[in-house]
Amino acid sequence: MGFIMEFAENLILRLMEDPNERDRKSRERIYDKYDKGKKFLALYNLPLRPYGFWTFERHNAQIFWDAQIS
């Protein structure tokens, strides 16, 4: 009977996950998501229009000309 219990215990221990390996994988996944989030925010904060887009003469003339815009 001791042999069966020892065999079952060894089988269960072999099938179990290593807690250090599980922790390492979860940390890698979390850090990866965090880095992707930082990259997304950096790209999201870029201006859609280049500097000076809203100050060029044609736009200002259109605002001055069309009273409905202003």
Helix and strand succession? HHH
Unreliable stretches covering 5 or more consecutive residues? none
Approximate shape: rod-shaped
The helix fraction, in percent, is over 70%
- If helices are DSSP runs of H or I spanning 4 or more residues, what is the number of helices? 3
Number of strands: 0
Number of self-contained structural domains: 1
Strand content: under 5%
Averaged pLDDT:
82
Structural class: mainly alpha
Major sheet characteristics: none
Report how far the terminal alpha carbons are from each other.
90 Å
Question: What's the gyration radius in Å?
Answer: 31 Å
GO cellular component, one term: respiratory chain complex I
Pfam family, one: NDUFB11
Looking at this protein, list some descriptive labels.
70 residues, mainly alpha, 3 helices, 0% strand, rod-shaped, NDUFB11
SSE layout:
Blueprint: H1 2-15, H2 19-44, H3 57-65
Question: Would you kindly provide a written description of the structure presented here, covering whatever features stand out?
Answer:
- The protein has 70 residues and is mainly alpha-helical.
- It has one domain.
- It has three helices and no strands.
- The protein starts with a helix and ends in a 5-residue tail after the last helix.
- InterPro entries: NDUFB11 (IPR035204).
- Pfam families: NDUFB11.
